Amino acid sequence: MAPPAADIMDESMMRAALGLAGRGPAVDPNPRVGCVLVVGETVVGQGWHAGAGTPHAEVAALSQARDLARGATAYVTLEPCAHTGRTGPCAQALIDAGVARVVFAQADPNPAARGGADLLAAHGVRVEAGLLARSAAALNRAWTFAVTHDRPMVTWKLATTLDGYAAAADGSSRWVTGAQARADVHRLRSRVGAVLVGTGTVLADDPSLTVRDAAGHATGTQPLRVVLGDRAIPATARALDGQAETLITPGHDPRDALKALQDRQIRHVLLEGGPTVAAAFLQHGYVDEIVAYVAPKLLGGGLPTLASLGIGSIADALECELTEVEQLGQDVRLRLTPTGRNQ
């Protein structure tokens, strides 16, 4: 039996709203949200959130629709907010515009903003929740994590030889992987709010920690550079070159660094530190995703990718779930999720 025409219409409009949401900035304190307003089968307004301080998706769509919004159905990728921040509550804006029905995908996980569905229903608006909720949540994976865990999501990025080394015995590590893998790292950096390393990495490798193009030039919006540790770094370090903002967090405790970043509304951190910093984050249960670039090389010794975790038996090994495998030139990118962690 074919699905009802209304179901097909609802899904089509929600997919359109998801497409609009994807136009918003991937790196922002706020989630990416899209909204489509429909009367009958006619789209009368559409909008998306273009970043912190700009109108929310619902308000943008209502501004386009004007009086045509009365009696409309609003398809929104995230439950309309019920709080006043830089902008007013979207649920109230929909009520004031006379919208008759609201279909939203993901329920708002933010305790400071949720409640829009109840407010809408209390004013006689028909509310339906959950349509394409997984797709909407995937669009805002890091934001959803950050607002529910009260800390940024952490992705550990590592480049390693087949036998688990990040550098040779003489300290040389440029380049473990090939050009395609290195370009992929820059795409990864462009999608996070901060890149974090330890002072040891700054002193040994002098990395720029910026998003760069194929010619090596900094390009686009740069993530915050974060240096963790209590060793002094020279004023001439590339991490202090002014191409991006740099935050130095004295001490070794990942909790302090993540607290400072959460206070700055950073939602996603790329951990690029050496073996000691990586081990510290793993031991605290603060690695939520691993992106490993594995090169077809063997060293037989050198700097390991990870310092000791204090694990003495294979039975106590930190298990990971493999979620993606992709070949990049001669290298392989693995995407994994640590399991059995203490959140």
Automatic annotation (TrEMBL):
<feature type="active site" description="Proton donor">
    <location>
        <position position="58"/>
    </location>
</feature>
<dbReference type="GO" id="GO:0009231">
    <property type="term" value="P:riboflavin biosynthetic process"/>
</dbReference>
<feature type="binding site">
    <location>
        <position position="173"/>
    </location>
    <ligand>
        <name>substrate</name>
    </ligand>
</feature>
<keyword id="KW-0686">Riboflavin biosynthesis</keyword>
<comment type="pathway">
    <text>Cofactor biosynthesis; riboflavin biosynthesis; 5-amino-6-(D-ribitylamino)uracil from GTP: step 2/4.</text>
</comment>
<dbReference type="InterPro" id="IPR016192">
    <property type="entry name" value="APOBEC/CMP_deaminase_Zn-bd"/>
</dbReference>
<comment type="similarity">
    <text>In the C-terminal section; belongs to the HTP reductase family.</text>
</comment>
<keyword id="KW-0479">Metal-binding</keyword>
<comment type="pathway">
    <text>Cofactor biosynthesis; riboflavin biosynthesis; 5-amino-6-(D-ribitylamino)uracil from GTP: step 3/4.</text>
</comment>
<dbReference type="InterPro" id="IPR024072">
    <property type="entry name" value="DHFR-like_dom_sf"/>
</dbReference>
<dbReference type="InterPro" id="IPR050765">
    <property type="entry name" value="Riboflavin_Biosynth_HTPR"/>
</dbReference>
<dbReference type="GO" id="GO:0008835">
    <property type="term" value="F:diaminohydroxyphosphoribosylaminopyrimidine deaminase activity"/>
</dbReference>
<dbReference type="GO" id="GO:0008270">
    <property type="term" value="F:zinc ion binding"/>
</dbReference>
<feature type="binding site">
    <location>
        <begin position="274"/>
        <end position="280"/>
    </location>
    <ligand>
        <name>NADP(+)</name>
    </ligand>
</feature>
<keyword id="KW-0521">NADP</keyword>
<feature type="binding site">
    <location>
        <position position="201"/>
    </location>
    <ligand>
        <name>NADP(+)</name>
    </ligand>
</feature>
<keyword id="KW-0560">Oxidoreductase</keyword>
<dbReference type="InterPro" id="IPR002734">
    <property type="entry name" value="RibDG_C"/>
</dbReference>
<feature type="binding site">
    <location>
        <position position="56"/>
    </location>
    <ligand>
        <name>Zn(2+)</name>
    </ligand>
</feature>
<feature type="binding site">
    <location>
        <position position="209"/>
    </location>
    <ligand>
        <name>substrate</name>
    </ligand>
</feature>
<feature type="binding site">
    <location>
        <position position="212"/>
    </location>
    <ligand>
        <name>substrate</name>
    </ligand>
</feature>
<comment type="similarity">
    <text>In the N-terminal section; belongs to the cytidine and deoxycytidylate deaminase family.</text>
</comment>
<protein>
    <recommendedName>
        <fullName>Riboflavin biosynthesis protein RibD</fullName>
        <ecNumber>3.5.4.26</ecNumber>
        <ecNumber>1.1.1.193</ecNumber>
    </recommendedName>
</protein>
<feature type="binding site">
    <location>
        <position position="205"/>
    </location>
    <ligand>
        <name>NADP(+)</name>
    </ligand>
</feature>
<feature type="binding site">
    <location>
        <position position="272"/>
    </location>
    <ligand>
        <name>substrate</name>
    </ligand>
</feature>
<dbReference type="Pfam" id="PF00383">
    <property type="entry name" value="dCMP_cyt_deam_1"/>
</dbReference>
<keyword id="KW-0378">Hydrolase</keyword>
<dbReference type="Pfam" id="PF01872">
    <property type="entry name" value="RibD_C"/>
</dbReference>
<feature type="binding site">
    <location>
        <position position="175"/>
    </location>
    <ligand>
        <name>NADP(+)</name>
    </ligand>
</feature>
<keyword id="KW-0511">Multifunctional enzyme</keyword>
<feature type="binding site">
    <location>
        <position position="159"/>
    </location>
    <ligand>
        <name>NADP(+)</name>
    </ligand>
</feature>
<dbReference type="InterPro" id="IPR004794">
    <property type="entry name" value="Eubact_RibD"/>
</dbReference>
<feature type="domain" description="CMP/dCMP-type deaminase">
    <location>
        <begin position="8"/>
        <end position="128"/>
    </location>
</feature>
<feature type="binding site">
    <location>
        <position position="90"/>
    </location>
    <ligand>
        <name>Zn(2+)</name>
    </ligand>
</feature>
<feature type="binding site">
    <location>
        <position position="81"/>
    </location>
    <ligand>
        <name>Zn(2+)</name>
    </ligand>
</feature>
<feature type="binding site">
    <location>
        <position position="189"/>
    </location>
    <ligand>
        <name>substrate</name>
    </ligand>
</feature>
<dbReference type="InterPro" id="IPR002125">
    <property type="entry name" value="CMP_dCMP_dom"/>
</dbReference>
<comment type="function">
    <text>Converts 2,5-diamino-6-(ribosylamino)-4(3h)-pyrimidinone 5'-phosphate into 5-amino-6-(ribosylamino)-2,4(1h,3h)-pyrimidinedione 5'-phosphate.</text>
</comment>
<dbReference type="InterPro" id="IPR016193">
    <property type="entry name" value="Cytidine_deaminase-like"/>
</dbReference>
<keyword id="KW-0862">Zinc</keyword>
<dbReference type="GO" id="GO:0008703">
    <property type="term" value="F:5-amino-6-(5-phosphoribosylamino)uracil reductase activity"/>
</dbReference>
